[in-house]
Design goal:
CATH superfamily of the largest domain in chain B: Butyryl-CoA Dehydrogenase, subunit A, domain 3
Distance between the termini of chain A: 21 Å
Number of domains of chain A: 3
Helix content of chain B: 40-55%
CATH class of the largest domain in chain B: Mainly Alpha
CATH architecture of the largest domain in chain A: Up-down Bundle
Order of helices and strands of chain B: HHHHHEEEEEEEEHHHHHH
Number of domains of chain B: 3
Largest sheet of chain A: 4 strands, mixed
Helix content of chain A: 40-55%
Strand content of chain B: 5-15%
Bound molecules: flavin-adenine dinucleotide
Largest interface: A-B, 48 and 51 residues
CATH architecture of the largest domain in chain B: Up-down Bundle
Strand content of chain A: 5-15%
Oligomer: heterodimer
Shape of chain B: globular
Radius of gyration of chain A: 20 Å
Number of strands of chain A: 10
CATH topology of the largest domain in chain A: Butyryl-CoA Dehydrogenase, subunit A, domain 3
Strand order of the largest sheet of chain B: 1-4-5-8
CATH superfamily of the largest domain in chain A: Butyryl-CoA Dehydrogenase, subunit A, domain 3
Distance between the termini of chain B: 58 Å
CATH topology of the largest domain in chain B: Butyryl-CoA Dehydrogenase, subunit A, domain 3
Structural class of chain B: alpha+beta
């Protein structure tokens, strides 16, 4: 039940190099204006910045080398997630390069991975983004033809490949569905976080490639890795909010003083700094567990989700509040982070859902 | 029933008979309600009231609502009804009260609040917009910001600087301003919800008759504080029936949709329900305390409580809704006619509630007001308090 003594919770020099290159690219290609633009003009297809990020290898991090990938680990993917949280660029990193990639690798659909690693293909796991575990599938198969509806799927707008859980007798199987094919309708919906837009998927007799074996283990692996790495994204969101608000508090004057000189605000900043430090430890541990395939991953992921999702929301809320009126505007980017943080809190299970699951894992049942 | 309550009931019956809501335009009904002294029953006779207890107003509104009559236009003209009107009663001349109160109540003239500026938000006394005397008029120049509903407004309450040689609090004067005149430019400011509820307002050589000055020259800070105390009551007061407002929506969802219920969320649902109920009771109690007097700094605590509750509850609602909470109804840039904090979906409620701890004085400033003016703790050191405005570094 105790944390593995072998866990490495720091950042390696290579990881810092990766961070620098991702941050540099994002600062040039994903400006706050460009990120906000998707609220008025939803993307058609995948954001161009994803091509650039794939160019520096972000799509390939979790793909094994023998399938054309970088053979990196969840630790490096967590660095990318942190930076994508700091920037909130609309990319399919979490949904395609983490969750879908993990599911495909576990399900043995390795022939699809090379195109994903190259950034030529983008995949999405066809489940509501709020799902913490595999829900009862809403799609059925009839003679290999799929029918059913799946709502609120993150990363589906712009994806060319859908991984669809399908009821097959007593088991659930995964079917791979090409988005362009007949009987497949992907309808993007207005989302709280338009930088990770959702879509509803309607299948009416669509053809799919059925994968061998039971789907549960592969889907659980994808969702678990996703939850573990979402914590790093939440950490990135919180860091941006803390740093940006801190800068503002040092320069904005009211009553003839910088607002950061008021002890009431200093204490808020100190508390937030503590929360972000704790979140960093939780997110690093989850990433490290995922990287090593540690048996403690389920605990680590739920701890990280429970804690980091709340910290990220709190940091974004403080960011809006401590900017005053400016924080409520569209022009200032704080709102992009608030929307991301709040949507991330629901994504892959709320904090309460993760705590409930954790109770079972660590032997603390509710009654 | 007390004599006053009986009198008010009869007068309301007479009003309803003479102006049956079914065949009377809302604006005409409201004007008649004003003339009958039933608009702000605690205001003096002749100015929309009867000089009776404030608590009788809810009885009147209930009686009118029962007969199908219009509600007070708090949503459309909240600034006029909740803030400008009581300020005019406290500090205005009879001429000003006659000019404005009836139109404010009936909705014939919508009011906005030209207080905040880019450099003067929490520190409202630092406003830099200048008003310079020119015969019987004042000439106003400056920039205001975050002005809610300025795009719909006919009139405004304005705080401007009339003397730069005295410390900041002493050089302010309060005015009523006609928004339909040359020199006033209103530009939309889009906000977090996608729409533009507030605006920037640029004032260039705007002429204001001295007859529209509210209170004495240099008394603006005191007058503005009367407005702000009323604003905080308006924001902090609110729903009267159990489960009205946001809690009604969230509790309703829990009650009506078993699929949403999660055992691990039940305690938080109930904690928020209790908080809503306690705030309702405290609001009722505040209303009873206010039955005679004007709101004091204590109202700051209620505003604080309302903001915290609205934010926690709307945040909880998104988590409760789960998948639905991830969706949003509309991002298009619009300039709304009026504001309803609860009017749209969970995402809107969550985002709009963030403004509750900023508008009308931030929650940090509310805490300072409670700590210093209610609890009497020693004040923060204010570096520029006694410095002439013109010497303040800006
Ligand atoms: C939705 C909305 C509608 C509004 N409508 C109107 C309107 O119609 N008319 C109008 O005039 N104004 C309006 N406002 C403006 C509002 O009154 C101001 O935004 C508010 O007073 C804060 O000022 P500011 O934005 O300049 O923030 P600042 O004063 O710069 O504050 C920034 C942060 O510093 C904190 N802070 C400042 N001083 C202190 C201190 N001494 N101690 C501790 N913390 C401190 C604040 O609490 C805040 O968190 C509106 C604002 C919003 C959000």
């Amino acid at each position: 039940m105790t944390a593995q003594p072998t866990a490495d919770l720091l950042y390696t020099p290579d990881e810092e190099d990766l961070r620098r290159s991702v941050r540099k690219l994002l600062s040039q290609k994903a400006t706050p204006e460009a990120n906000a633009a998707v609220y008025d003009q939803p993307l058609e297809g995948v954001a161009p910045v994803w091509g650039e990020l794939a160019g520096v290898g972000l799509a390939a991090l979790l793909v094994p080398e023998e399938h054309g990938g970088a053979g990196a680990t969840a630790r490096e993917a967590a660095i990318a997630a942190e930076e994508l949280g700091r920037n909130v660029a609309p990319t399919p990193f979490l949904t395609s390069a983490v969750i879908a990639t993990t599911v495909l690798a576990h399900a043995g659909a390795t022939d699809r991975l090379e195109a994903l690693a190259a950034g030529e293909s983008v995949a999405a796991l066809a489940l509501p983004f709020s799902a913490r575990t595999l829900p009862a599938p809403s799609v059925t198969a009839d003679g290999g033809r799929l029918s059913g509806r799946i709502t609120s799927v993150a990363g589906a707008p712009g994806a060319d490949l859908l991984i669809v859980p399908v009821v097959d007798g007593a088991t659930t199987r995964l079917h791979l569905v090409d988005v362009g094919s007949e009987g497949v309708t992907v309808t993007p919906v207005l989302s709280l976080d338009m930088t990770r837009q959702l879509a509803d998927i309607e299948l009416t007799g669509a053809a799919g490639e059925a994968l061998e074996g039971d789907a549960s283990a592969a889907v659980e692996a994808g969702l678990l890795t996703g939850a573990a790495l979402l914590a790093s994204e939440q950490l990135g969101v919180a860091e941006w909010c803390l740093e940006t608000t801190l800068d503002y508090a040092k320069t904005r004057h009211q009553f003839g003083r910088p607002i950061g000189s008021y002890q009431a605000l200093k204490h808020r900043f100190a508390d937030l700094f503590l929360d972000v430090s704790l979140a960093r430890a939780a997110a690093r541990y989850a990433a490290d567990c995922a990287a090593r395939g540690d048996a403690d991953l389920a605990v680590a992921a739920s701890v990280a989700q429970s804690f980091c999702s709340a910290v990220s929301v709190k940091a974004a809320e403080e960011c809006v509040q401590l900017h005053g009126g400016i924080g409520m505007t569209w022009e200032y980017p704080a709102h992009l982070y608030l929307k991301r943080a709040k949507a991330d809190q629901v994504a892959l299970g709320t904090g309460a859902a993760h705590r409930a699951a954790l109770g079972g894992l660590v032997g603390l049942p509710p009654a | 029933m007390s004599d006053d309550a009986q009198l008010v009931r009869e007068r309301t019956e007479t009003l309803l008979r003479a102006h049956p809501p079914q065949s009377t335009e809302d604006g005409d009904f409201l004007a008649a309600q004003y003339d009958a002294g039933l608009a702000w029953v605690h205001f003096p006779e002749g100015f929309g009231g009867l000089g009776l207890g404030r608590d009788l107003q809810s009885q009147i509104q209930a009686q009118i609502a029962e007969a199908g009559g219009p509600a007070a236009l708090a949503g459309i003209n909240g600034i006029g009804i909740g803030m400008a009107a009581p300020t005019l009663i406290a500090f205005g001349t009879d001429g000003q009260r006659r000019r404005y109160l009836r139109d404010i109540w009936s909705g014939a003239r919508i009011c906005c609040q030209l207080f905040s500026e880019p450099g003067a938000g929490s520190d409202l006394a630092a406003v830099a917009t200048r008003a310079v005397r020119d015969g019987d008029e004042w000439v106003v120049n400056g920039q205001k910001v975050w002005t809610s509903g300025a795009h719909k407004a006919d009139i405004a309450i304005l705080v401007a600087r009339t003397d730069v040689d005295v410390p900041k609090h002493a050089g302010l004067t309060y005015f009523m301003v006609d928004m339909h005149q040359p020199g006033i430019e209103v530009r939309p400011l889009r906000q977090i919800t996608g729409e533009a509820e507030f605006n920037e307002v640029f004032l260039t050589d705007v002429r204001v008759p001295d007859a529209d000055r509210v209170g004495d020259i240099g008394q603006g800070w005191k007058v503005a504080n009367a407005t702000l105390n009323n604003e905080r009551v308006a924001i902090g007061g609110g729903a009267r029936q159990r489960e009205t407002g946001m809690i009604g929506i969230v509790a309703g969802a829990w009650r009506d949709d078993p699929a949403l219920r999660r055992p691990e969320m039940h305690d938080e649902m109930m904690r928020l329900w209790v908080e809503a109920e306690v705030l309702r009771l405290a609001g009722m109690r505040l209303g009873q305390q206010l039955a005679k007097g004007a709101p004091g700094p204590e109202s700051a605590a209620m505003k604080l409580g309302f903001a915290r509750h609205a934010q926690t509850l709307s945040g909880f609602e998104i988590e409760l809704q789960g998948e639905e909470g991830l969706r949003f109804d509309e991002w298009a840039m619009k300039r709304p006619d009026h504001v309803d904090f609860n009017g749209r979906g969970p995402g809107y409620r969550y985002l709009r509630a963030k403004g509750n701890s900023i508008e009308g004085g931030t929650s940090e400033i509310m805490r300072n007001v409670v700590a210093e003016r209610v609890l009497g703790l020693p004040p923060e050191h204010r570096v520029d308090k006694d410095m002439p405005f013109k010497e303040m570094p800006r």
